[in-house]
Design brief:
Blueprint: H1 2-15, H2 25-35, H3 54-87, H4 94-100, H5 110-143, H6 150-160, H7 168-182, H8 196-207, H9 229-234, H10 249-254, H11 266-278, H12 284-304, H13 316-319, H14 325-332, H15 343-363, H16 371-401
Helix pairs in contact: 3-5, 3-6, 3-11, 5-6, 5-7, 6-8, 7-8, 8-16, 11-14, 12-15, 15-16
Length: 402
C-alpha cells in the first residue's frame, strides 16, 4: 500500500489545478481518500464535528447500518425458505436455485438463510451503487467537486427500504431520480433539503406501486403471497385488529416478519442507534422527540378507538416495531443535512414527524405506512422551523439587552 500511496502522490500534480488531467480530479481524489486518510477536515455545516472529518462520520453511519444489513439478508432468506418449505419446494427456480442447491433451503439453517437472502439483497445493492455512483461521478466531474463518502450511506439506505422482489431496473430508476432530483440539482452534498434515499424510495413507490405494495412483493418466492403486519391490520375487522396478527410483539421486535429488506428489525435499528448516539453522530433530541410524538398520538388513537377503523385499536408499543418507524427514527429523520439544526428546532421537527407518521398510518388505512411521507414533509419544513426558532431567540435577546 505504501508503494501505491507514493504512486498516487507522484501523479497528483497531473490532477491538480493546471494539470493535464485537471478535469478528472474528482475521480483521483475519490480513489486517494477511499484508500488513505484525508488530510482535510470539514469546515462548514452541516457536518462540522471537532476533530472528525466527513469520511469518519460516514464510516460510522455505515458501521451502524451493519446490523440492519445482516438482518436484511438473514430475514429475507428465512421468509423465502419458510415459504418454499410450506409449498413443498426444495429450491427456487433460476440461477438462485442453482446456487441454493448446494446448501438447501432450510429455514433452520443460518447459512442457508444468509445465502438465500444475499442473493436478493446484493444485486439490489450493487445496482444502486453502480448507477448512483455513475451519476455522482458525472456531476462531480462537470462541477469539479470532490467525491463524497455521503453517497455510500445513501447507497446503503435505499436498498434497505425496498422489498426483495423489486425489479433491478426500477432500483436503477429510483436511485437515479433520488441522486439527480433529490440532491444534485440543489448543488450536491450538504445542499439537499430532502433525504436522497427517501426521495428515491418515494419515486419508486409512486411510479411503480404494484412492485412496492400488496401481498406479493415481501416474500422472495414466486406465487407466494403474504401481507405485512401493517397490511394485515389495515384489512382487519374493526375492534379485532390485534387478533388479525399471527405474530408476537417479540417477533416484530426481532424482525422475523415480512417487510422491506432492512426495516423489519427494531432490534437491529436499536443497535445502530446505540452506535450513532455513543459516537455523537446522530441527534438524540430528534430520536427522542420522534419517539415521544409517535407514542403520544398513537396513545390518543388507542384510547379514542373506532368502530370503523381497525388501526385505532393498535396499542402504542406495537407501532414502534411495525413498518419502518424504528428505521426512519434512527437513520432517516436524523440526517444532518435535511433535518432541523437548532436544538429547539430538533425537538419540534422530531415530534412533528412522529405525529405525522402515526396519523398517516392510522387515519388512512389505504396507506398504512406513513413514515416515509412524514420524514419528507419534516425535511421540507425543517428550514422554516429553524428560521422561527432563530427569530424567537433574536427577539428574546433584544428584549433582554434592550
Amino acid at each position: 500500500m505504501k508503494i501505491f500511496g507514493k504512486f498516487l502522490d507522484r501523479i497528483a500534480p497531473k490532477f491538480l489545478k493546471g494539470g493535464s488531467l485537471e478535469r478528472l480530479y474528482p475521480l483521483y481524489e475519490a480513489l486517494d481518500t477511499f484508500l488513505f486518510a484525508s488530510n482535510r477536515v470539514t469546515e462548514k455545516a452541516p457536518h462540522v464535528r471537532d476533530a472528525v472529518d466527513m469520511k469518519r462520520i460516514m464510516i460510522t453511519v455505515l458501521i451502524s447500518l451493519v446490523p440492519c444489513v445482516i438482518m436484511a439478508m438473514w430475514n429475507t432468506g428465512l421468509q423465502a425458505n419458510s415459504a418454499l418449505q410450506a409449498m413443498g419446494i426444495d429450491v427456487p427456480t433460476g440461477w438462485r436455485g442453482a446456487i441454493m442447491a448446494s446448501v438447501g433451503c432450510d429455514p433452520e439453517s443460518l447459512v442457508s438463510n444468509l445465502l438465500h437472502g444475499s442473493l436478493y439483497f446484493l444485486p439490489i445493492y450493487l445496482v444502486t451503487m453502480l448507477v448512483g455512483g455513475i451519476w455522482e461521478l458525472v456531476f462531480n466531474l462537470v462541477r469539479g467537486h470532490e467525491m463524497s463518502e455521503a453517497f455510500l450511506v445513501t447507497g446503503l439506505l435505499f436498498p434497505l427500504t425496498l422489498p426483495p422482489t423489486i425489479p433491478l431496473w426500477q432500483v436503477a430508476g429510483g436511485i437515479s431520480f433520488g441522486i439527480i432530483f433529490g440532491k444534485e440539482v440543489f448543488g450536491g452534498v450538504g445542499r439537499n433539503f430532502m433525504n436522497p434515499a427517501l426521495v428515491s424510495r418515494a419515486f419508486v413507490y409512486f411510479a411503480y406501486p404494484v412492485q412496492m405494495s400488496g401481498d406479493r412483493v415481501w416474500t422472495a418466492v414466486d406465487g407466494f403471497t403474504e401481507a405485512t403486519a401493517l397490511g394485515a391490520l389495515a384489512t382487519a375487522e374493526p375492534g379485532k385488529a390485534m387478533q388479525a396478527l399471527d405474530i408476537t410483539w417479540t417477533q416484530a421486535f426481532l424482525g422475523t416478519i415480512p417487510g422491506s429488506l432492512g426495516e423489519t428489525s427494531a432490534l437491529a435499528c436499536l443497535l445502530g442507534a446505540g452506535i450513532l448516539l455513543l459516537t455523537g453522530i446522530a441527534s438524540w433530541r430528534i430520536m427522542a422527540s420522534m419517539l415521544i410524538g409517535g407514542l403520544g398520538i398513537s396513545l390518543v388513537f388507542w384510547l379514542v378507538g373506532s368502530s370503523t377503523n381497525p388501526l385505532f385499536g393498535v396499542p402504542p408499543h406495537w407501532h414502534l416495531v411495525l413498518g419502518g418507524f424504528a428505521f426512519g427514527l434512527v437513520f432517516m429523520a436524523t440526517d444532518p443535512v435535511s433535518a432541523a439544526n437548532t436544538l429547539t428546532g430538533q425537538w419540534i421537527y422530531g415530534v412533528l414527524i412522529g405525529v405525522l407518521a402515526i396519523v398517516i398510518r392510522v387515519a388512512n388505512p389505504a396507506f398504512p405506512e406513513g413514515v416515509m411521507l412524514a420524514i419528507l414533509l419534516g425535511n421540507v419544513l425543517a428550514p422554516l422551523i429553524d428560521h422561527f426558532v432563530i427569530q424567537a431567540n433574536i427577539k428574546r435577546r433584544v428584549l433582554r439587552h434592550g
